[in-house]
Structure formats: C-alpha cells, structure tokens
Amino acid sequence: MNDEELDLEQQELYEHHRFTVDRGQTLIRLDLYLQMRLTGVSRTKVQAAAKAGCVRVNDKEAKSSYKVKPLDVITVLLPEPPHEFEMLPEKVDFPIVYEDEDVLVVDKPAGLVVHPGVGNWTGTLMNGLLYYFGDKAVPYLVHRIDKDTSGLLLVAKNEEAQVVLAKQFFEHTIERKYNALVWGDFDEDEGTIVGNLARSPRERRMMAVCDEEHGKHAVTHWKVLERFGYVTLVECVLETGRTHQIRAHMRHIGHPLFSDALYGGDAILKGTTFSRYRQFIENCFAVCPRQALHARVLGFEHPRTRKHLHFESPIPEDMSCLLERWRKYASAKD
Prior knowledge:
The protein is an alpha+beta fold.
C-alpha cells in the first residue's frame, strides 16, 4: 500500500452509531449506556459529545443525564475512531500559525503525512505533535489534508474541543478555501460541482464521481482567479470534506490538478506539440512535483469562546514559482 492509498484509507475521521435500546433495558444514564456500548470510548468523550449536541435520542439532542428507556433510538457522532496501535513522539518540524489551550493551527508543508499508518509509521505530523505537546496535552485530529497538499490544518488539544470542532465540520460550517492550478480554461468565471464520491472501481487509490445511490454527497464551489490559457488558477470552497474531493471533482469536469500524478495531471493535457513547450511543462513539473493544491483559508468558531477565528496561509514557494512561470509564459504568448 503506497502513500496515496494510505491517505484514502485514513480520511474517515468520524464514527456514526445508531442503537435501538433493548425492550428489557432498565433505566440508566445515557453516558453510562453509551460507554458500555462503544468500545474504547471514554465516558468523558461521550459527555463531551452530548454537550456538543452530537448525541440524539429519538431524533432530539439529549444530555448525558438522560435516562435511557426501552426502544429508544440513539444516534451518536464521534470524531476519530480509537487507534489499534501506539503512536510515539518524534521531533518533526512544522510551522504553527496559532495556539491556545484548546486548539492549534498548523501550516502543513507538502510531503508531510498527517497520521501514521501502513507505509508511514513514523515521521508524521501526529508523531511531531505528540513530541511538541509532551505531557501538557494530547493532539486530536478533526480533519486531514493529503500528504502532498500544503496548507492550514486544525488540531484540537482536548476531547471537548475535538467534539465541538468535529460537529462544525460535520455540519459544514467550517470555512475552507483552497487555491489550485488546474489544466484547461473555463467558459464561466465560477461554478459548483455536485457529485457523490466513492472509491474508483478501476483504481482503488482514487476517488470517483458515482451515481446518487452510492458514495458520499460532495459539493465543491470554484471560482477563477487567474487564466493562463492552457491552465487556470482557481479558488475552491469546500461545502463538504470528502477524501480527495477537489482532485476528484476537478478531474470529473475535465480539469485535473496540474502535476497530480494520481489523477492524470502529470501529463501534457493542453497546449502545443512544440518541443520548447514540452520542455517548459517538464520544467514546471520539476518546480512543483506534487498536485498544485494549497489549503489557503481556514475559519471556525472557537470551541470554548465561540469567537470566529480566521487564518490565511501564503502560497508556498513551489506553487509560487510555478505560478510565476505560467504568468511569464502567458504574457509572452500574448
């Protein structure tokens, strides 16, 4: 299993549970009932989930003290399923944009894997966070970005913050904007891609748009920022946060991300057949040898203060150099 397949396997950060209480169940507190039913989940985490409105009984939000009754229907949203392996602290360098007692915002460089797993057991962001926090806090993920995507990533420092933030992601109230360089030009200045995403039947490492009865609902809004003729810089706003969403959606509408090897963007898809142009593209691939995708904007409601926090990350050097090359090429072509 390679890095891309690893990313695909590890993107699901939420557990969804639905229980129908047995007819013979005696009255018991909701948090105690769920602690017994959910393997490896602490009572603290159950209580935090209930406080955040992530536990519902008979389709209504319920408190931890609610007394479970026979035939109650209980649904639970919990972030980050328990791990089956131990993560070890390691010194890993990563830029920190913001930190307080509840949250930390990282500007993840391209090439850094977020979470350990098959093929990448060490040297990940999570290993680095464990080292950085020491015994002062525990890192809890609330979302992920691909190994070769750069940009802003939000981390919770306690279970209570994690559950509150996870609910914001689940309800699509988190502000996320990405910059992407894609192949081809657009007839319109903006648009929306709606298409369920599931694992591709032809290539297990990829996600693909499928019919409405399969996959997971996904919506991407895009807007043109700069046109270079054969490629276009777009801003993508995620309404949902599915695995490889921007990469799969853009490929689906005929605009794979530039230099995205998995989704076919590492070939000359637009332009001339001249050898000088071919050399220009190969030089561009060398400058940015990964998908040209950057998580530029992140906004969310602070889990404790409820204040809105907004962060922006500058385009990293490899993408900046790539864009500058295309600007010069487009201006010379004109």
